[in-house]
Specification:
Largest sheet: 4 strands, antiparallel
CATH superfamily of the largest domain: RNA polymerase II/Efflux pump adaptor protein, barrel-sandwich hybrid domain
Radius of gyration: 18 Å
Strand content: 35-45%
Structural class: alpha+beta
CATH topology of the largest domain: OB fold (Dihydrolipoamide Acetyltransferase, E2P)
CATH architecture of the largest domain: Beta Barrel
Shape: elongated
Length: 153
């Protein structure tokens, strides 16, 4: 497997937002995992491919290498309790539940995750300010995937 093929796999993972991709061709195996849908961990197996890992890390786009830094250690990640599709508004064309900078209280609906045709409201568990929305509207989410960052008051 060439570095160009691996770069293409990273691009596909980044564009589709999938959580993990593993490809094996003969003795070569590549596994790409995402965290928060932003940073990527690339695990290469095979001596010929593994020796190219340094070149791949230098050649990969900076956006794929950057991991989000939390400004405050007290920031809280709101994670998805289920697998499903993320929606940031109650219906198409409606106003979003929350925007970056909004104050939230416990019980405030942050988003909806549709799973098996059921709409599950995801509520804030703490009072604070929404400092980041980490998922695009209509995108599939995994169990435990970060959806929002809230800075407690």
């Amino acid at each position: 497997m060439t570095i160009e093929e691996i770069k293409e796999l990273i691009r596909v993972v980044h564009e589709t937002g999938i959580a993990e991709l593993e490809v094996q061709r003969g003795e070569n195996r590549v596994r790409i995992r995402t965290s928060l849908g932003i940073d990527h961990e690339v695990v290469l197996h095979h001596s010929d491919v593994a020796s190219s890992a340094g070149a791949l890390a230098q050649a990969a786009p900076a956006a794929l290498q950057a991991s989000p830094a939390q400004d405050d250690e007290k920031d809280v990640l709101v994670k998805s309790p289920i697998v499903g599709t993320y929606y940031d508004a109650p219906s198409p064309g409606a106003a979003t539940f929350v925007k970056i900078g909004d104050q939230v209280e416990p019980g405030k609906v942050l988003c909806i995750i549709e799973s098996m045709k059921l709409m599950n409201e995801i509520e804030a568990e703490i009072a604070g300010v929404v400092v980041a929305k980490l998922v695009e509207n209509g995108r599939p989410v995994e169990y435990g995937e970060a959806l929002f960052t809230i800075r407690p008051r």
